[in-house]
Amino acid sequence: MELQGRTALVTGFAGVIGSVIATSLANAGCDVIGVDKVKHDIVRMSIDEIKAESKRNVKYFQCDLINKEDIHKVFQDLKSGDVDILVNAAGRLSINKIEDLSDDVWDEDIGLNLTAPFVLIKLVIGLMKDKGWGRIINISSIMGIKATGSISSYIASKTGLIGLTRAVAVECADKGVTCNAICPTVVDTPYSYWKELRGNKGTFLE
Fold it and tell me: Which positions, given as ranges, span the membrane (predicted)?
């Protein structure tokens, strides 16, 4: 696929998955728009490294994706039509038994893992259809397909993200726009809670 000159928006830019995706897209010829909640200074080195390696433009927007108003503020400074590729890589995982899961934590997990991708897709999909080209990639999880205990809000949100992906894919099938979900298993990041959840990764995978 020829990506030279395309523009990709990647959420979760400061995370391991998001940063690797952003780097790969830049190296493939895309200009990159990174979005995450951390301050610009924290990702400045990553931005400089991607620019130096790929020779592509890299912009960064600090944004709390749980807050819809924050998302819309990003797009006040950014034309929706500038986004050819949308990668929803931001996510969070909370560990709580169902009886201990607060409404606030549930809302935050659903907000970041499911509602934010919906809002972003809604903002870019119309112009993708008009252009006759667009790529939407949602980073779901193996937990969107399988299940385990104590992460019900994560499982619900990632399962919902797969459903949203299917719905968008069908709706856009004849418009030149594709929508796919990737379902990673355990990824070793600072946000990997598998040891806390199951003692160790081996036990969890069994």
Answer: none
- Whether 84 contacts 128, CB under 8 Å: yes
193 catalytic, yes or no? no
Phi, psi of 178 (to 5 degrees): -110, 155
For the chain, the 3-state helix, strand and coil shares in percent, each to the nearest 5, are 50, 15, 35
Strand extents, DSSP E, the chain: 7-11, 31-36, 58-62, 85-88, 134-139, 177-182
What pLDDT digit, counting tens, does each position of 187-197 carry?
665 554 445 55
Q: Which tokens in the block code for residue 186?
A: 């355990």
**Distance in angstroms (rounded) separating the CA atoms of residues 61 and 34:** 6
pLDDT at 139: 99
Among candidates 176, 165, 194, 88, which has minimal Cα distance to 130? 176
- Rounded to whole angstroms, the Cα distance separating 119 from 105 reads 19
pTM summary value = 0.90
Of 141, 182, 195, 190, nearest to 42 by C-alpha is: 190
Residues 6+ positions from 7 with CB-CB distance below 8 Å: 30, 31, 32, 33, 82, 83, 84, 85
Residue of 60, 154, 191, 193 marked catalytic:
154
Side chain identity at residue 122, one-letter code: K
Contact call for residues 186 and 192 (beta carbons, < 8 A): yes
Q: Which residue has the tokens 């696929």?
A: 1
Compute, in degrees rounded to 10, the torsion defined by CA atoms 5, 10, 13, 19: -60
User: Which CATH class, in words, describes the domain spanning 7-205?
Assistant: alpha beta
